[in-house]
Amino acid sequence: MDSTGFLTGQMLLAMPGIGDPRFERAVIAMCNHDEQGALGIGVGQHVAGITLHTLMRQLDIDPGVAPDAPLHVGGPVEPHRGFVLHSSDWDGEGSIDVEGLWRLTSTLDVLRAIAEGQGPSRWIAALGYAGWSAGQLDGEMAANGWFCVPGSSELLFGREAGHRWSAAFASGGIDVRLLSASSGHA
């Protein structure tokens, strides 16, 4: 199955019973999917005990006008590395456009711009990322571990983290109350 690239710009949703507690009710904003692997940022849950202001102060950045927003659990890979998913109205050093839906920036200039009130109008800060080696995610998709829906600004920026999983499934026509963690045979 050569599906390389089809997940970029999609929202990847963990199916119940995925088997990895790190991804229970996970919502991943997919930023890259190619022959070398895939990368996405988790946007379905917050990091406990640390906020944007805490992170900025640790990085010697004055929080300025930035709201003290929660940080998201971006994924289990490099959990001390920061990422900002943001609207396309701001472009900085190393920003990557994701299918015209959002941008991904991992440099400090985006945090400084947010602190100064000059950053993107909509953004989510996260620590870590979800990554897959070549073909790994395709195999997990074939095993029904994940469901994907088209990415949208409304799902990404217009929903609270705790509501994104069910809202994203609903956007794909699925009522999460009908999902089961076990499978059967017909």
Describe, in plain words, how this protein is organized in 3D.
It contains 5 helices and 10 strands. With 186 residues, the protein is α+β, with helices and mostly antiparallel strands. Belongs to the UPF0301 (AlgH) family.
Largest sheet: 10 strands, mixed
CATH architectural type: 3-Layer(aba) Sandwich
Percent range of helical residues: 10-25%
Low-confidence stretches: none
Kindly state the number of beta strands.
Answer: 10
In DSSP terms (H or I, runs of 4 or more residues), the helix count works out at: 5
Give me the secondary-structure category: alpha+beta
Q: What is the CATH class? A: Alpha Beta
CATH homologous superfamily?
A: VC0467-like
User: SSE order in H/E notation?
Assistant: EEEEHEEEEHEHEHH
Mean pLDDT: 92
So what's the overall shape?
globular
Strand content: 25-35%
CATH fold group: VC0467-like
Straight-line distance between termini: 25 Å
What's the topology here?
Layout: E1 10-14, E2 27-34, E3 37-42, E4 46-51, H1 52-58, E5 70-73, E6 77-86, E7 96-98, E8 102-105, H2 108-115, E9 123-133, H3 136-142, E10 146-150, H4 153-157, H5 161-171
